[in-house]
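Appendix C reproduces, verbatim, an entry submitted by the partner laboratory led by Prof. M.T., so that reviewers can inspect both the input and the predicted structure.
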Amino acid sequence: MLQLILCDYDSFSLASITIKNFMASQQNLLKFLYWFLFVSTIVTFWISLRSDSHALEYSLAALALWASTYGLHRVIKSKSSARD
């Protein structure tokens, strides 16, 4: 980053490069969070199927995780379509 600042004198291109890097890192963070929630949903649902007690609670937790995963997926899709 320091080399980029020293070599690039045009502040507009520097700002656009910095914004692109931020957006790329934000997109990667959202994708990581999406996959973490997706795997958590599957594991929680599997536990709800295998549990003798508290099956309903685990099923509701899996449903909540699925809803948050779906919402995050829609956010990722809207950000990627707005960027294109």
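The mean pLDDT is 83. Additional entries are available on request from the coordinating office.
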